[in-house]
């Protein structure tokens, strides 16, 4: 049997979203994610961070499925977040270079598992089961790791939490398993589908409300990952109803939404801001400080940063 080998390069920001998109097709569960390497030594600096490779059976349906995947990923290529899809026909799949252990450990308590993994959960552990491609695609991304470390540290049972840009759903599930109530919000229907799958797979339906929409003026920013224009996406008005917001989103969206974040949080509420590197830390932090937030916690991994801001209680 021969295989159609498909590959593309992505930025740091887009790798999780590419894995999420591919997982929704159900054409392959064998998605390999590796660090990007230059083919020549002449390139001084590249925006690409990861290479994603996956395979389709080279049968009568291969070309149709490839076309569907190209259409799915085209917004990312158009906005410079990923390269065009490269195609080759091979007799065998490449040996995996990124062999994973059966679980991914994050923070002190979280263990991310594939759906069928056999695992005996310790008393102090919290297991999260995701589609294989999502579990190990998300687990690679520093922004996800940092967000989960800070979630573990700051979530208190019975909190009312907003997961803005819920994507694969991993953060919503983690928050729910820590005992909070979650509104999982995203402006893309594919993210809503992925989050719904993750929530149902982990049995936290009673704690997570999933909604397609944006916060405040987020609807004016278009699709955050360059997808088609948003049509009649509901807007969640900021009404000081959340104890904590986790936002693993693009830098420009963070900066644009800071006033809405402040109005959405109760006095003394927390916001976990992730999804940006230290190149943008000063700009993101300044935009929050201008709206009377203060920095109360921070985690770093390589060049990636996640910051906890608190909505300051006014001085009287």
UniProtKB/TrEMBL annotation:
Q: Which UniProt keywords apply?
A: Cytoplasm, Methyltransferase, Ribonucleoprotein, Ribosomal protein, S-adenosyl-L-methionine, Transferase
Which Gene Ontology molecular-function terms are recorded? protein methyltransferase activity
InterPro entries reported in the protein's UniProt record? Ribosomal_L11_MeTrfase_PrmA (IPR050078), Ribosomal_PrmA_MeTrfase (IPR004498), SAM-dependent_MTases_sf (IPR029063)
- Give GO terms for biological process: methylation
Methyltransferase as a keyword? yes
Q: Which GO terms describe its cellular component?
A: ribosome
Which family is annotated?
Belongs to the methyltransferase superfamily. PrmA family.
Q: What is this protein called?
A: 50S ribosomal protein L11 methyltransferase
